[in-house]
Amino acid sequence: MKRVLTLLLTIVMVASIGLTGCQSGDDASTETSESTASTETSESSETTKVSGSDITEIRVSWWGSETRHANTLAAIAKFEEMNPDIKIISEYQGWDGYYDKLLAQVLAGEAPDVFSCIGEWYGELLQGNALADLTGKIDVSGHNAKYVEACSVDDAMYGVNLSVNGKVIIMNKTLMNELGVEMLQAPYSWEDLAAKCVEIYEKSSGDVYGMPDFSVNMEGMGFPMFPDYAASVLGVEGPLPYDNDNYTMTQEQIESYYQFWVDLRESNGIAPADISTMNDFSANSLLLQRVVAMETNFTGSYGRFQDQTQDELVMVPYPEGPNGEAADSARPGIIMSVFEGSDKQEAAVRFLDFMTNSEEAALELKTCRGVLPTEVQRTALIAADGVMSENDVKVMEVVDQIMQRDLVDFYSGPAGNAELSRIFVDVGQEIAFGVISVSEGAEKFMEQVAELENN
After folding, report:
1. What are the backbone dihedrals phi and psi of residue 426, each rounded to the nearest 5 degrees, phi first?
2. Model pTM?
């Protein structure tokens, strides 16, 4: 963490320029991962008058695709209509650079009043005194209790969940039908997944691979898949890869997971490393280019993929272990939090309560962040004629399948855990390109994790 903050301090002066102005960027996901989108700031930050009272202006930031931006702006317009004393200054962009920009804003004391984040960032944000305690300030009675706990640390709630977002395998049904390959059907095992990857390669005569190699791709789901693999293949129980305070994974577990990717690579089940490193979630998507027939991502990203292809895409939950073991967690897809340094927290809380509890917000947001968190919102969507698209229905159906599993607790993890995916991919590339062996790679990975613990 000290290393991360030191680096960011050197860029704060640059990153702070235009923090509330126009920006642009590309999105890639973790949930959560979508297409390039432009950033705007809505209207002026000057105080105006409504019915003789001052308008309170609050800045709200998020990342996402064009669809997410449009739906969120529509929800904001509805909120402003219902709350004429509050004006929202919208700051939005793609995924790329969002996290670093947010930390720079926090360090400069210029963070938005409300900002989107994920639970894995809590460590850094809490150390930066960025998260306001929202305990008892927002009605979360309609939320799943495990998701409320996932947005909390030491019984203090530091954000509100905006989406229920499960990990899935996305398959190109059109392409697989052309190849004569049957789609995966839940329940299935990790061995079934690997065999399906090889079958796709063989039936395409080597023209199509099963999946990208996510052990070498920073924008992929390589490390986020690890706890699911460890629970369902290795039978690991308890918090993984960390609890709120410590890293809990072992070198043997990481080595087994790297070996899973090596075996797939050697059997041609996944795209070669040099091709896989170029995979992203927009123009260079191997799934959209039909280089691979399957992709792994969060349910909230399904619509983005489907919107970019004429092929029919379908989703299936993650694989299970031999006895039905799964590691689907109560991980909030996206959290919205209030900046501790904001002097407009009352208005910020009103906005968050609207976003997570109101039917009006639900009808505008739809599934742009995944399935909405409260029953009242989900019911409003289902009951409204013509609001739910075919994609929305598919997302809600697969999330319902995931929610029927025995969800494991989600932990935000110690400070520095955002570095784990980078470490995993850096080492994975060395393994893939023959620089080091699998065992040496697992040892190197754990050494770098130990450095995170000591910083």
Report:
1. -60, -50
2. 0.76
